[in-house]
């Protein structure tokens, strides 16, 4: 007998409940990945994520080959491809991780009805893509938590399963057709600083992080130039790393850094449980504030300057250039540029979220859309009118200006915190720096935002 494992956002062999169950159940298993037409059509397969995905698939194929198997890769409609494999092998079951987004939920429904017609069982496994499954903890009277702190309390108390070891042997039936596993070398237009992906890379990064990085995380997570966060987000996004395992291993460390790190991993689950319960929040305001954002045409020049990192606010430009170069941005940078776009320039959060998704390697519907909404004040922030001042924030989180000088080399002649306010230089000195004037007076932007929110 044969079982099928459909890999989606869980590209690993360690701690993989669907794979384990499929192997336990049948003598032979087809590990399947489908390059899904609908994801391509939705513009989600961007160069940076496609490159990282190719690394993950290559690594997964290698890990399966080490165990006597291989990865089967197909392209097309995911349900059609699963059904084709089921028909060709006579498989009696399909195992898949429970998804979160509206798209993933729809895929599950379509799979269920197509497989029922074939008398093939569908097993959906929880706590694969998140550490705690969406819906596993809920407040009284609601299907999800809308506020983080009470969620965190319940999430921390919630029993979590122990991580599973990787299987030793995977037997794949003969004759199942596969395309070549995609290679990063074939993906054009990838940003130069996109890191390497794959399970081995993810695991060694987690080990190194827990050994020598995490202890400084409580103090250092907002240090822009120090870059003292884990950078595990792309590995978690593609599931090359299990969130259950990350939480489990970090929780064994008894220090404030590890505690703070586990709390961030809970933020990831928090946004996933919001999206699972409210899939429309990927596009629509979670809380309708009746904002009348400036139209994209009206704000076109400001939006272009923001995207290209030439707003004249050095820390904003530094962060946007980091995004363009690495396909990643420090969390403090994300907060600052998102606050700047929505509250200082008064542009719709969806414009920023779309740009982020185009470039981020970790670009993720749950984390991206809901963090954008959090900053814009249309989401779960309990202080929706809070505005981050880019100059004060830059002085606090980049006190010596090193982050700015690294990403905005035009300003490298400016010492210390002076790099954050080039407009304060005497005119003749200012003229020596080929760097734009600020797009607007911060106070004017803030006044516009306050007026608009007061009216709403
Ligand atoms: P660390 O600080 O080391 O944190 C560890 C892990 O915790 C991260 O890898 C991530 O999985 C999780 N995490 C940390 N902060 C958050 C958070 N605020 N929300 C959810 N999970 C979190 N994260 C994404 O993974 N994908 C996105 O598309 C994304 N878009 C964002 C957009 C905006 C506007 C903002 C403000 C934040 C966004 N984040 C997103 C959250 C956060 O910025 C990144 O997860 C983090 O910067 C990744 O770097 P790291 O792995 O070094 O994080």
UniProtKB/TrEMBL annotation:
FAD binds at residues 217, 229-233, 261, 362-364. Its cofactor is FAD. One of its GO terms (molecular function) is FAD binding. It holds the Pfam family DNA_photolyase. It comes from the Bacteria. The keyword Cell membrane does not apply. The keyword Acyltransferase does not apply. Residues 176-199 are annotated as: Disordered. Keywords: Chromophore, FAD, Flavoprotein, Lyase. Residues 1-130 form the Photolyase/cryptochrome alpha/beta domain. One of its GO terms (biological process) is nucleobase-containing compound metabolic process. Binds 1 FAD per subunit. PANTHER family: CRYPTOCHROME, CRYPTOCHROME CIRCADIAN CLOCK 5 ISOFORM X1. Belongs to the DNA photolyase family. This is Deoxyribodipyrimidine photo-lyase. It comes from Streptomyces typhae.
